[in-house]
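User: Hey, quick favor. My workstation is busy. Could you predict this chain's structure for me?
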Amino acid sequence: MSASSGEINSLATVTIVDMYRRHWRPGASDHHYVVASRVATLFWGVYAIVFAGWGKRLGPLIVAVNVVGSLFYGSLLGCFVLAFGFRKVGGTATFVGMLAGEAAIFWAFFFTNISWLWYNVLGCGVVMATALIITYLAPESGAPAGSARESTPLPG
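Assistant: No problem, here it is.
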């Protein structure tokens, strides 16, 4: 139980310190942040309970971990392939590609009988295809000097 409460408190702390305090309510009183932290702890606790209830339908733990992971790993793999293999693809194209990849994966998860083992391939392919299409059909203009968008010859 202490491990679970530690994880929930960590999530609440990250939520309040890194997001809420920095972007939504900077400069509020300490009392305000304590109350907000309690609300965030409650939110993450309820979220964990709901997710655990849903996750038990996925079968054995190893299968559940792989199914949930496969919903996100394909898009992340596509992002890494673009970063290491396609220097001209920018951040915006990659981000839009990742959104398209996630949409494709969740569509396959909810509306097809495709095995979850194929979600990584699907996500990676959609991310790469979308980002490359965006890059080569609508290249960003006016990239700042020294950016990765410039065509810089490699030594050798």
